[in-house]
Structure formats: C-alpha cells, structure tokens
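Q: What would this complex look like in 3D?
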Amino acid sequence: MAHMTSSRVRMSPDARREQLLELGVRLLGSRSLEDLSIEVLAEEAGISRGLLYHYFGGKQEFHVAVVRRAADDLFAVTAPDGVGTQLEQLAGSLERYVDYVAANYRGYVSLVRGAAGGSAELQEIYEQSRNALTDRLFDGAVAQEAAQLGLTDTPAVRLLVRGWAAFMEEVVVEWVRDDRGVSRDELLAHLAASLPGILAPLRP
Amino acid sequence: MAHMTSSRVRMSPDARREQLLELGVRLLGSRSLEDLSIEVLAEEAGISRGLLYHYFGGKQEFHVAVVRRAADDLFAVTAPDGVGTQLEQLAGSLERYVDYVAANYRGYVSLVRGAAGGSAELQEIYEQSRNALTDRLFDGAVAQEAAQLGLTDTPAVRLLVRGWAAFMEEVVVEWVRDDRGVSRDELLAHLAASLPGILAPLRP
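A: Here is my prediction, written as structure tokens for the whole assembly.
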C-alpha cells in the first residue's frame, strides 16, 4: 500500500488525525481490531509511533476512535438517497450495506462481534450505531411499510425491527464469509422481503 | 444460597465435577462469565480453591466447561417434546427457550455476546451450539414449514434460518431485559409467526 502524504507536507493536527482515522478504517478491511496496532498504523502511515500516541493517547483510545469512525461511515453510506419510494430507498440502502460489509469484512465483524463482547466503550458505540440505524429506519421505510400493513409504531413493532437488524447483520456477514452460491441479487431480494415478512404477522 | 453437600459425603470425582458445573451454570443466572471466578464458585460450593483448580485446571478451562454445559442445557431444554405437529412442537420449544433465557439471563448474554467476542474456544462452543439448534430445526419444524411453502432445503433457506436464529436471540434477550409492555404470550406469537414470515418470500 502506498504511504500517506509525507509528514513534511504541513497539515493541521485535525486534518492529520482525520487522515489517520481513515487509514485505520481502511486497514480494518483486511484485519481484525485486535490485529490493528499502533505499530501497524505507524508503518502504513509512514510516521512515528510517538506521533500516533500523541494523536490518540493509546491503543484503546485509538481503537475506540477507529470503531466510532467506522460506525459513522456505515451510517453515512446507508443513508436513504431520497430517490423513489421509501421501500425503493430501503432497497438502495440494503445494497450499499451489503457492499460496505463485503469491502470492510474483517473490520465490520470486529465491530459487531468484537464490540459486542468487548470493552464497555466499544459496546456503547455498537449499541448507538445499531440504535441510530434502527431509528432512521423508523422515520422512513419501516413507518411506510408499517402503515401499509395497518400497523402503528408500537413497542412490539420496535422489538421485531430490532430483531430484524440482528437478522440482517447475521445473514450479510455469513453471506460475505461464504456465499453458498446465493447471488448478490437473490440476497438483496431476500433481505428486502424479510422486513414485511417479519412485520406482517403483527397486523391487527 | 444454601451450600452444596458437605465435602465429607463421598462422591466420585466425576459426580462432584458435574455438581460443580451445575452450580456454575446456576451462578451464571445472576452474573456474567467475567464475574464468575473460581473464588466465587469455591465460596458457594463450600470447598477450597485448590480443589477447584484440581477439577478444572484454571479459570479459562472452568469457563469453557461451564459455557459448554450451559449450551448443552439449552439444547436439552429446547428439544421438541414429540407431542402434536412439528409447528406445535416448535411453539413449545420457543416457550421453553424464552423461559430459559429469562431464568439464566446474565449467563445467556455471556454466552451469546461474550463468547461471540471472546476466546476462540468460547466462540467455537457458541458456533456449535447455534449450528446444533439450527440443524435440529431443519430436521423438524423448518422442514415441515418449508414443505408447506413448497420450499426445499436450499443454501438460501439455510442462510435465512441462520439469520432467524440471530433474530430470535436478539428479540428474546431484549424482551427479557425490558419487556416494553409486550406480554409473554404476544412475544411467543410473534416469534412463532416470524419463521414463516421470513421464509414465505422464498416461495417459487
């Protein structure tokens, strides 16, 4: 991998920190959080370990910052694009979600598996990320889907949609790990159909 | 909690080890794996730490043995009872699953969250446990449900059922943590309906 901009180029500390976070997230595409050390980042960025400790404070803080950035990226990349119906937008978000997980597999698994069993701070980021993704669904596709089914926003609906998020996570991670001959288009069709499938039995 | 049978009662080493594992699982009902130390077990069992190290070798081995036992218990308790149709049996299994998670909440969360991000050995137990539960479903309720829907046992069906297991895990853990006013009967009805809900869109 090409090294980043030489340190002789003047960058503000914030811009440099941003650039290092982006590199950290990119490195997570091919290695787990556990294997993402300050040393690895320093080598890839072509700057000293001391400077990295200066920017992030320590390995734990560095991991927290990288995982938070990855969660933000995921949130941004899966934002509805505003084109078409809510369900068409959901289909687009699902597509970008699948491609994001495929491109960032190791790091994404670190986020969902590692953070789930990891430090309190990583767990918190994971919870926030999942809640933010679910809440956004409620403002859009779920609200529309639920309304079409005659459902309102009840605790039972929220509980099942939370379960649906776990379903999605598991199916997509497993598919990326081993696609079992299921094509990307088939996968996307199954994922899109699963939300109404789970909600339909709630109809009054 | 009452202490176990005094160590003056003669028991075979295997029987004593079994008894200690059962105690370990019971203690996991109210504390996480991290908080289940050899010291806690020794105190509850009324025997020495040295003897516990003799039985289990160390803390890591003790945790692995307790988690394996908990996974076996879960598998046993959710076995179809052979009464009624496959789907009635699935409903019964779901009911016992929900009650098991409610009675063993902390330990169960340790199994599904902790093991997922934990040591390779704990991850392996978790994977095996989930696979065993899913495979048993395939021999019973899923096969019947799929046949009613005109589905055969394809990789896509297996993938979605794996996702359904994650859905179940998430919904039940969340419901036990905070039931949000959703009754146990409502929850069970939603869970039972979700499997055909997820599989139905796969119909040819």
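A: To summarize the key features: Chain A has two domains: 13-62, 66-202. Chain A has a mean pLDDT of 84.
Q: Very helpful, thank you.
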